[in-house]
Design brief:
- With about 300 residues, the chain is mostly helical.
- It has twelve helices and no strands.
- The longest helix is centred in the first third of the chain and has 33 residues.
- The chain is globular and about 45 Å long.
């Protein structure tokens, strides 16, 4: 996979925009390429989430988050070796906020998974990106796709969440709000830093923020070899791969389209739950997945159509 070049740095990022494709790159591939990155990242993060659900009884929710972020930060630092000099105060401010958002999103989500099943947790969490897609979209058709995806999301959740732990629901909704913020600041970080340098630095911020919480909850369990091995696998699947792929994708597609693509997460989570956690799909859940996929295909076709009109 070829890593796209970073957009020029700007001291005053404003709206969520899509950098112009590099010269010589066909616009059609520029539309479809990022979609593939997003889908690959979604598959990776949900299978990582299923593995994390198995690890939570061993190290606790905050312990898993700490292991995940620490391992991811170390891997990204070794791979990216980000340059620390030559960045403006606004650049560093964006990275710090991105890191805080990432830490909060992970901590809240795993607190949710510790209380409610993976499928409903992701279903509630994805409401954040869906809301973002409606708020940031400048095209009425994207509101249609978001609404269709929302219908599938609620159907996948069984039409209601009244029998779930209220704290688990609250944590999932909070994670969704942080996910929406993550999308915004991931795009801004990608425009300000080359390659995945900004992601590596933000991951360090997130890991340092969660480290004290993980030590308090998990203690000596954090240094157990098996726990470290499983936590590292979760880090690769749930952080390193998806965050890098999403950051690259957000340089080339609008955040509204990206947010609608996130509607696939409950469907992928249900699939991961089936293979990893032995959770079977009902007919209603299959219908919900079909609605979400239809919304995602509509969003993709809309994005490709925009590329054709502009070409």
């Amino acid at each position: 996979m070829t890593t796209p070049s970073a957009a020029p740095s700007s001291s005053t990022p404003t709206a969520i925009t899509t950098p112009a494709p590099a010269s010589g790159v066909p616009r059609r591939s520029g539309s479809l390429g990022p979609v593939g990155l997003v889908l690959a990242g979604g598959i990776s993060v949900q299978f990582g989430g299923a593995l994390a659900a198995l690890l939570i009884p061993r190290a606790g929710a905050l312990g898993v988050v700490t292991l995940r972020l620490l391992a991811a930060a170390l891997v990204l630092l070794l791979i990216c070796r980000p340059r620390l000099r030559g960045h403006s105060r606004a650049d560093w401010g964006t990275v710090v906020v991105f890191g805080v958002t990432m830490a909060a999103m992970n901590a809240l989500f795993y607190q949710s998974v510790a209380r409610i099943p993976l499928g409903p947790a992701v279903t509630l969490e994805v409401l954040g990106p869906l809301a973002l897609s409606v708020v940031t979209s400048r095209r009425a058709v994207n509101i249609l796709w978001a609404g269709l995806a929302l219908a599938g999301v609620f159907l996948l959740g069984g039409g209601g969440f009244g029998d779930l732990d209220p704290m688990g629901v609250a944590f999932a909704l909070g994670a969704g709000a942080m996910w929406a913020a993550y999308i915004v600041f991931s795009a801004r970080t990608g425009r300000r830093f080359p390659q995945a340098d900004g992601l590596a630095l933000a991951m360090v911020v997130a890991a340092l923020l969660c480290l004290p919480l993980g030590i308090v909850e998990a203690g000596a369990k954090l240094v157990d070899p098996m726990t470290i091995a499983l936590g590292s696998a979760v880090a690769i699947l749930s952080s390193v791969l998806p965050y890098t792929l999403e950051l690259l994708a957000l340089r080339r597609i609008p955040a509204a389209t990206f947010a609608i693509l996130m509607s696939l997460e409950p469907a992928v989570a249900a699939t991961a739950g089936f293979f990893v956690l032995n959770q079977a799909l009902s007919a209603v859940e299959a219908l919900a997945i079909a609605l979400v996929i239809a919304a995602t295909m509509g969003a993709v076709r809309t994005q490709v159509g925009r590329g054709k009109v502009k070409s």
